[in-house]
């Protein structure tokens, strides 16, 4: 103690007043610890230890939920399964998802998570909503689909009544039907097309040595899919198929981030954002008619952070109007694209303060802190998102080491949208047991689980991300209460008005009760 004091004093050049404070603090903070020690044999009181452990566990996500007898039975069996998986030679959350995927698919916990009602998906981008498999095997087989391979080994698609004109990035357009017939091995060719639309690879570490490389492929895949998805007739089926994939994974509601890009018809007609919102609304209604246990879907209008301040200001203004025109469809606004290489929220402050300036309503759902570059302008996005009154934070990977922002987000009930597989594939973290959200989960920070870009990562629905969060990030400590809370949170922290949240939560509870009855 003495030598340590002398050491600290030398290193920190403490002044004597500081030293007094330090000694005082040491005494005060160690008092409860001393009290824990029984004076008989110096061993801490086991009953007190139990109490502290229970108190600590009660702070985690779902820690205050009381489980029913049936839920406790299921919880006990989940725990046994988790112990087994944690002691296996290859623990899936510690392995890159592309390698872990087959292991996860064999897991009994995963199979249970697939059946579990998961509430809402609140962070998915529209251009990666539907699996690449469907895009290639269904959409590219439609008539009049042209394909072109660019100089940088990327691919473009375009539906057109006649051969498209050459463009800067595409000189040689070929009719897919003709090309396929000429190539012969259609299955092999289709697999190569799928490769262009996803990040999936057998050798993720070799192929994506760093964040720059993986983000480059990421943006390329987005552009490749655009020509297919923005064809108006395709878009209609695409939304429906996307809702189908979510519903199959027991998800009842969606908030989809979309730029509402212009869509095109075969004859060259171009549709605007209003047309797209109408389409989205129609498809959602039709889907609910076919699946009465589905609750709905909304859009978070998103623009790329590569735009200029005046462009973003115009986009915010337009979004305010669209929110007025489609109050039940438009949830709010976000800025997308890689944060590390893009512009910070603070850079766009003049654009983003427009709603407050005009007294208009436009809730924000900002991507913020999807970075491991601590102390940069981008790292500051978490605090800035909160200063702009964001309703939720996308990723907020950086939040755990911003104590003040973390406090503000907790007090303001601003949930973090945790997308574990996205963070791993985009190389913010390799072993998911070390994800900073483990800290947030252990203290019950407002949080929901989502999948970000399912088609690019080769996932579908939310079960894969729930698996990583529950088994990897939460560890043995996360229990059935954690799962229930995370799922219910997705309704609670959605953009729905209070009366719809109430209905949604009742619907969720019914689904949950049926799930417990079937599986306990
Ligand atoms: C493609 O999907 C549509 C609806 O989404 C379906 O009607 C059609 O049969 C599918 N076509 C193929 C070839 O799978
Ligand atoms: C954020 O909310 C506060 C309190 O409601 C308000 O005073 C402020 O103008 C809002 N700021 C922005 C940028 O919307
Ligand atoms: Zn995202």
Automatic annotation (TrEMBL):
Gene3D superfamilies: Metal-dependent hydrolases. This is adenosine deaminase. Signal peptide: none annotated. Its EC number is 3.5.4.4. Keywords: Hydrolase, Membrane, Metal-binding, Secreted, Signal, Transmembrane, Transmembrane helix. The chain crosses the membrane at residues 20-37. Belongs to the metallo-dependent hydrolases superfamily. Adenosine and AMP deaminases family. ADGF subfamily.
């Amino acid at each position: 103690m003495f030598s340590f004091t002398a050491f600290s004093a030398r290193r920190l050049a403490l002044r004597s007043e500081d030293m007094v404070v330090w000694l005082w603090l040491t005494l005060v903070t160690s008092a409860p610890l001393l009290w824990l020690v029984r004076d008989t044999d110096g061993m801490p009181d086991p009953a007190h230890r139990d109490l502290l452990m229970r108190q600590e566990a009660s702070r985690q996500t779902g820690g205050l939920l009381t489980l029913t007898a049936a839920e406790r039975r299921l919880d006990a069996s989940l725990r046994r399964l988790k112990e087994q998986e944690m002691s296996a030679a290859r623990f899936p959350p510690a392995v890159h998802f592309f390698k872990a995927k087959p292991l996860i698919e064999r897991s009994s916990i995963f199979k249970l998570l697939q059946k579990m009602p998961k509430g809402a998906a609140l962070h998915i981008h529209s251009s990666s909503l539907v699996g690449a498999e469907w895009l290639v095997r269904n959409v590219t087989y439609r008539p009049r689909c042209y394909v072109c391979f660019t100089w940088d080994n990327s691919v473009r698609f375009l539906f057109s009544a006649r051969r498209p004109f050459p463009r800067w990035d595409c000189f040689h357009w070929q009719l897919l039907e003709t090309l396929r017939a000429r190539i012969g091995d259609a299955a092999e060719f289709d697999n190569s097309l799928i490769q262009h639309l996803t990040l999936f690879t057998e050798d993720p570490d070799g192929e994506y040595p760093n964040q720059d490389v993986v983000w480059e492929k990421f943006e390329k895949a987005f552009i490749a899919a655009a020509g297919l998805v923005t064809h108006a007739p395709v878009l209609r089926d695409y939304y429906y198929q996307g809702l189908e994939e979510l519903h199959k994974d027991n998800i009842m509601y969606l908030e989809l981030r979309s730029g509402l890009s212009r869509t095109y018809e075969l004859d060259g007609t171009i549709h605007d954002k209003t047309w797209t919102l109408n389409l989205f609304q129609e498809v959602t209604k039709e889907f609910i008619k076919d699946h009465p246990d589905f609750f709905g879907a909304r859009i978070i209008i998103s623009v790329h952070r590569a735009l200029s301040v005046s462009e973003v200001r115009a986009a915010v203004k337009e979004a305010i109007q669209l929110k007025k025109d489609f109050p039940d469809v438009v949830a709010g606004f976000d800025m997308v694209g890689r944060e590390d290489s893009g512009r910070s929220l603070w850079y766009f402050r003049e654009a983003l303060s427009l709603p407050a300036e005009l007294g208009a309503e436009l809730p924000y759902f900002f991507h913020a802190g999807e970075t491991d570059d601590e102390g940069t302008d981008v790292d500051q996005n978490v605090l800035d998102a909160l200063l702009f009154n964001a309703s939720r934070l996308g990723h907020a990977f950086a939040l755990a080491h911003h104590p003040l922002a973390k406090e503000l987000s907790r007090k303001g009930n601003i949930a973090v949208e945790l997308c574990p597989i996205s963070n791993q594939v985009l190389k913010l973290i390799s072993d998911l047991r070390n994800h900073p959200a483990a800290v947030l989960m252990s203290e019950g920070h407002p949080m929901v689980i989502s999948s970000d870009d399912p088609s690019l990562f080769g996932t579908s629905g939310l079960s894969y991300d729930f698996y990583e969060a529950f088994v990897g990030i939460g560890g043995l400590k996360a229990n059935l209460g954690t799962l229930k809370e995370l799922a219910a949170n997705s309704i609670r922290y959605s953009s729905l008005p209070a009366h719809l949240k109430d209905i949604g939560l009742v619907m969720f509870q019914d689904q949950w009760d049926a799930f417990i009855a079937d599986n306990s």
